[in-house]
Specification:
Strand content: 25-35%
Largest sheet: 5 strands, mixed
Strand order of the largest sheet: 2-3-4-5-6
Number of helices: 6
Structural class: alpha+beta
Radius of gyration: 22 Å
Shape: elongated
Mean pLDDT: 82
Helix content: 25-40%
Number of domains: 2
Protein backbone atom coordinates (compact mmCIF):
# COMPACT_ATOMS: atom_id res chain seq x y z
CA UNK A 1 0.00 0.00 0.00
CA UNK A 2 0.93 3.68 -0.20
CA UNK A 3 3.12 5.16 2.57
CA UNK A 4 0.85 7.00 4.98
CA UNK A 5 1.84 10.27 6.61
CA UNK A 6 2.34 10.39 10.40
CA UNK A 7 -1.10 12.00 10.73
CA UNK A 8 -3.40 10.69 8.00
CA UNK A 9 -5.58 13.26 6.25
CA UNK A 10 -8.69 11.05 6.44
CA UNK A 11 -8.36 9.37 9.82
CA UNK A 12 -11.19 7.29 11.21
CA UNK A 13 -9.41 5.33 13.95
CA UNK A 14 -11.35 2.59 15.74
CA UNK A 15 -9.83 1.46 19.05
CA UNK A 16 -9.35 -2.30 19.16
CA UNK A 17 -11.15 -2.34 22.52
CA UNK A 18 -14.33 -1.19 20.73
CA UNK A 19 -14.32 -4.00 18.16
CA UNK A 20 -16.72 -6.71 19.23
CA UNK A 21 -17.55 -10.09 17.78
CA UNK A 22 -20.57 -8.63 15.96
CA UNK A 23 -20.01 -6.95 12.63
CA UNK A 24 -21.15 -3.33 12.66
CA UNK A 25 -21.39 -1.45 9.36
CA UNK A 26 -19.87 2.02 9.16
CA UNK A 27 -20.27 4.74 6.55
CA UNK A 28 -17.20 6.93 6.03
CA UNK A 29 -17.20 10.20 4.11
CA UNK A 30 -14.20 12.47 3.55
CA UNK A 31 -15.03 16.15 3.99
CA UNK A 32 -13.76 18.91 1.66
CA UNK A 33 -10.60 19.59 3.67
CA UNK A 34 -9.71 15.91 3.89
CA UNK A 35 -10.29 15.46 0.15
CA UNK A 36 -8.09 18.46 -0.68
CA UNK A 37 -5.28 17.09 1.51
CA UNK A 38 -5.60 13.61 -0.03
CA UNK A 39 -5.58 15.14 -3.53
CA UNK A 40 -2.23 16.79 -2.73
CA UNK A 41 -0.84 13.57 -1.27
CA UNK A 42 -1.86 11.44 -4.24
CA UNK A 43 -0.96 14.01 -6.91
CA UNK A 44 -4.53 14.57 -8.08
CA UNK A 45 -5.90 17.74 -9.64
CA UNK A 46 -9.02 17.31 -7.49
CA UNK A 47 -10.75 14.73 -5.32
CA UNK A 48 -14.46 15.47 -5.55
CA UNK A 49 -15.80 12.49 -3.61
CA UNK A 50 -14.48 9.75 -1.34
CA UNK A 51 -16.74 7.55 0.73
CA UNK A 52 -17.08 3.94 1.75
CA UNK A 53 -19.32 1.50 3.51
CA UNK A 54 -17.21 -0.86 5.61
CA UNK A 55 -17.49 -3.59 8.20
CA UNK A 56 -14.81 -4.46 10.72
CA UNK A 57 -14.66 -7.63 12.77
CA UNK A 58 -12.17 -9.97 14.46
CA UNK A 59 -10.70 -12.61 12.16
CA UNK A 60 -8.39 -15.20 13.73
CA UNK A 61 -5.31 -13.41 15.10
CA UNK A 62 -6.26 -10.16 13.34
CA UNK A 63 -9.15 -8.07 12.12
CA UNK A 64 -10.88 -8.04 8.75
CA UNK A 65 -12.11 -4.86 7.05
CA UNK A 66 -14.42 -5.38 4.09
CA UNK A 67 -16.25 -2.75 2.16
CA UNK A 68 -17.09 -0.85 -0.96
CA UNK A 69 -15.49 2.46 -1.78
CA UNK A 70 -16.67 5.15 -4.14
CA UNK A 71 -14.68 8.12 -5.32
CA UNK A 72 -14.45 10.71 -8.06
CA UNK A 73 -11.25 12.53 -8.91
CA UNK A 74 -9.47 14.48 -11.61
CA UNK A 75 -6.04 13.15 -12.60
CA UNK A 76 -3.52 14.88 -14.86
CA UNK A 77 -3.01 13.27 -18.27
CA UNK A 78 0.52 11.84 -18.47
CA UNK A 79 1.02 13.36 -21.92
CA UNK A 80 -0.79 16.71 -21.87
CA UNK A 81 -1.49 17.49 -18.22
CA UNK A 82 -5.17 17.93 -19.08
CA UNK A 83 -7.73 16.79 -16.47
CA UNK A 84 -8.82 13.17 -16.80
CA UNK A 85 -11.90 12.18 -14.80
CA UNK A 86 -11.55 9.07 -12.65
CA UNK A 87 -14.50 7.30 -11.13
CA UNK A 88 -13.75 4.44 -8.76
CA UNK A 89 -16.34 2.09 -7.33
CA UNK A 90 -15.01 -1.20 -6.04
CA UNK A 91 -14.98 -3.68 -3.22
CA UNK A 92 -11.94 -4.16 -0.99
CA UNK A 93 -10.77 -6.50 1.79
CA UNK A 94 -7.92 -5.78 4.16
CA UNK A 95 -6.68 -7.97 7.00
CA UNK A 96 -4.98 -6.13 9.87
CA UNK A 97 -2.50 -8.05 12.00
CA UNK A 98 -0.38 -6.90 14.94
CA UNK A 99 3.01 -5.32 14.26
CA UNK A 100 5.98 -7.08 15.84
CA UNK A 101 5.91 -6.39 19.56
CA UNK A 102 2.23 -5.35 19.64
CA UNK A 103 -0.64 -7.43 20.91
CA UNK A 104 0.69 -10.83 19.80
CA UNK A 105 3.48 -12.95 21.25
CA UNK A 106 4.46 -14.43 17.92
CA UNK A 107 4.02 -11.30 15.75
CA UNK A 108 7.79 -11.06 15.15
CA UNK A 109 7.91 -14.65 13.90
CA UNK A 110 4.83 -14.05 11.76
CA UNK A 111 6.38 -10.95 10.17
CA UNK A 112 9.41 -12.99 9.07
CA UNK A 113 7.42 -16.03 7.93
CA UNK A 114 6.98 -16.77 4.25
CA UNK A 115 3.33 -16.58 3.23
CA UNK A 116 1.80 -17.94 0.05
CA UNK A 117 -1.13 -15.95 -1.32
CA UNK A 118 -3.72 -16.81 -3.89
CA UNK A 119 -6.26 -14.67 -5.74
CA UNK A 120 -8.80 -14.95 -2.89
CA UNK A 121 -6.42 -13.49 -0.29
CA UNK A 122 -6.75 -9.88 0.73
CA UNK A 123 -4.20 -7.15 1.41
CA UNK A 124 -2.56 -7.36 4.81
CA UNK A 125 -1.62 -4.32 6.88
CA UNK A 126 -0.33 -3.95 10.40
CA UNK A 127 -1.97 -2.26 13.38
CA UNK A 128 -0.18 -0.85 16.39
CA UNK A 129 -2.07 -2.84 19.03
CA UNK A 130 -4.29 0.15 19.88
CA UNK A 131 -6.44 1.04 16.87
CA UNK A 132 -7.22 0.44 13.21
CA UNK A 133 -7.59 3.47 10.95
CA UNK A 134 -10.48 2.74 8.60
CA UNK A 135 -10.20 6.11 6.84
CA UNK A 136 -6.55 5.54 5.94
CA UNK A 137 -7.40 2.03 4.69
CA UNK A 138 -10.09 3.52 2.42
CA UNK A 139 -7.79 6.32 1.19
CA UNK A 140 -4.99 3.89 0.32
CA UNK A 141 -7.39 1.49 -1.39
CA UNK A 142 -8.72 4.37 -3.48
CA UNK A 143 -5.21 5.50 -4.46
CA UNK A 144 -4.28 1.98 -5.54
CA UNK A 145 -7.42 1.74 -7.70
CA UNK A 146 -6.52 4.88 -9.72
CA UNK A 147 -5.08 4.54 -13.22
CA UNK A 148 -1.31 5.00 -12.84
CA UNK A 149 -1.05 6.43 -16.40
CA UNK A 150 -4.22 8.44 -17.11
CA UNK A 151 -4.59 9.61 -20.71
CA UNK A 152 -6.88 12.30 -22.05
CA UNK A 153 -8.52 11.98 -25.48
CA UNK A 154 -5.87 14.45 -26.75
CA UNK A 155 -2.90 12.46 -25.36
CA UNK A 156 -1.87 11.02 -28.73
CA UNK A 157 -1.88 14.46 -30.36
CA UNK A 158 0.16 15.93 -27.49
CA UNK A 159 2.72 13.14 -27.77
CA UNK A 160 2.94 13.52 -31.54
CA UNK A 161 3.44 17.29 -31.20
CA UNK A 162 6.27 16.60 -28.74
CA UNK A 163 7.93 14.35 -31.33
CA UNK A 164 7.12 11.04 -29.68
CA UNK A 165 6.54 8.39 -32.32
CA UNK A 166 4.08 5.57 -32.00
CA UNK A 167 5.50 2.10 -31.60
CA UNK A 168 4.52 1.10 -35.14
CA UNK A 169 6.12 4.22 -36.64
CA UNK A 170 9.40 3.86 -34.82
CA UNK A 171 9.91 0.13 -35.41
CA UNK A 172 12.15 -1.99 -33.20
CA UNK A 173 15.10 0.40 -33.49
CA UNK A 174 13.10 3.64 -33.32
CA UNK A 175 14.69 4.80 -30.07
CA UNK A 176 18.17 4.30 -31.52
CA UNK A 177 17.24 6.17 -34.71
CA UNK A 178 15.91 9.11 -32.68
CA UNK A 179 19.12 9.18 -30.66
CA UNK A 180 21.17 9.13 -33.85
CA UNK A 181 19.15 12.05 -35.25
CA UNK A 182 19.82 14.09 -32.09
CA UNK A 183 23.54 13.33 -32.23
CA UNK A 184 23.77 14.29 -35.92
CA UNK A 185 22.11 17.67 -35.23
CA UNK A 186 24.86 18.61 -32.72
Amino acid sequence: MVNAPATPEFSRAVPLSEIGAATRPRHLVADAGERAALARRFGLLALDRLEADVTLHPDGAGYLVEGRLRGEAQQACVASGEPVPARIEEDFRIRFVAEAGHDAADAADAADAEVELDADDCDTLFHDGRAIDLGEAVAESFALALDPFPRSPDADAALKAAGVKEEGEAGPFGALAALREKLEKK
